[in-house]
Design a protein that fits this description.
Layout: H1 5-8, H2 13-34, E1 43-46, H3 67-70, E2 74-77, H4 95-102, H5 117-120, E3 129-134, H6 136-141, E4 146-151, E5 154-158, E6 163-166, H7 184-198, H8 211-219, H9 240-243
Antiparallel strand pairs: 1-2, 3-4, 4-5, 5-6
C-alpha cells in the first residue's frame, strides 16, 4: 500500500491495502454526499478475485481454484432499497443483469447471470450451478488445468488429483472427500456445463483483440507466452498441487 499505510501496516500489508481502499472510498463518498448525489447513485463494490496468503501453499492468485481466490466482496447500494444480505452464492455474472433491472433497461437474452434485485428485496434465490476454472498453470507452464463447479455448498475441482468439498462443513477446503465418493457423476456434470457454456449458439459475438491490447494483457500476466509446450493429457505428476513450490 502507499504511504502512510505502508508504514502503519508494515507487518500486515494486506490489511494496509484494505485500509487504503477504505480511506479512498471514504473520500469519494464524502464528495458524493457534499454534492447531493450519494443518495441517488447506484454503488457496487467488488473485486476481480481473492488472494491467497499462504493457504494451500499459494502466496498469490491464479494457480488454484480454492475459495481464497474465488470468494470476493460484493456490496451493492441501491437508492431506496433497504439493507439486506444474500447468504447464498452469487457471482460476477449477476452484476450486469442487476444493473439492468435497477435502471429498468431490457436485459440481453444471452446473459448467463440473473438479477439480484428481487433477492435483495426479499425474494428467494434459485439454486444454481457455478462454473470456475484456473487455466493459468496450463497456458503459462504447461501444467494440468483446473476446472470445476459449485452446486449448493458442494464443490468439485477436476484435475489429475481431483477434489471434492462440502463447503458447509469445510469452507477452508482442508479435507477433500474425493476418495470417499465416486466422481464419474461429477465429471459428467462438469462436461455438460462446459459444453453448454461453449455452445456457439450461446455466444453472440466475438471481438478481435488489437496488438496493443494484447501486449497490455500479456504484461499483466493475463496472457501466457506462446513458447510453452502444452500436453494434451495429464497424470498426477502434472497436477498444480504437486508442482507448485
Amino acid at each position: 500500500p502507499p504511504a502512510p499505510f505502508e508504514t502503519k501496516y508494515e507487518k500486515n500489508l494486506y490489511d494496509g491495502e484494505v485500509a487504503y481502499v477504505d480511506f479512498v472510498l471514504g473520500k469519494l463518498f464524502n464528495y458524493m454526499k457534499k454534492n447531493n448525489i450519494f443518495d441517488r447513485t447506484l454503488t457496487i463494490f467488488t473485486g476481480d478475485h481473492g488472494e491467497s496468503l499462504g493457504q494451500h501453499n499459494e502466496m498469490t492468485h491464479g494457480y488454484f481454484a480454492y475459495n481464497t481466490t474465488l470468494w470476493i466482496p460484493l456490496i451493492i447500494s441501491i437508492p431506496g432499497v433497504n439493507k439486506g444480505q444474500v447468504k447464498k452464492i452469487v457471482g460476477h455474472i449477476d452484476i450486469f443483469p442487476t444493473v439492468c433491472d435497477v435502471l429498468r433497461i431490457k436485459k440481453p437474452s444471452f446473459l448467463q447471470g440473473i438479477s439480484l434485485l428481487p433477492v435483495i428485496k426479499g425474494k428467494k434465490l434459485p439454486k444454481r450451478t457455478f462454473y470456475f476454472e484456473s487455466l493459468y498453470p496450463y497456458y503459462s507452464r504447461g501444467w494440468a488445468p483446473l476446472r470445476g463447479f459449485i452446486y449448493g455448498m458442494e464443490k468439485f475441482i477436476d484435475s489429475p488429483i481431483p477434489e471434492l468439498y462440502n463447503l458447509d462443513e469445510d469452507f477452508d477446503e482442508l479435507k477433500s472427500l474425493a476418495e470417499e465418493k465416486k466422481l464419474d457423476g461429477y465429471r459428467k456434470r462438469l462436461a455438460r456445463i462446459i459444453n453448454e457454456q461453449s455452445n456457439p449458439e450461446n455466444i453472440k459475438a466475438r471481438q478481435r483483440i488489437d496488438r496493443e491490447s494484447l501486449e497490455k494483457l500479456r504484461s499483466l500476466g493475463y496472457i501466457s507466452s506462446p513458447q510453452v509446450s502444452r500436453k494434451e493429457s495429464f497424470g498426477p505428476e502434472d497436477d498444480v498441487k504437486v508442482l507448485l513450490p
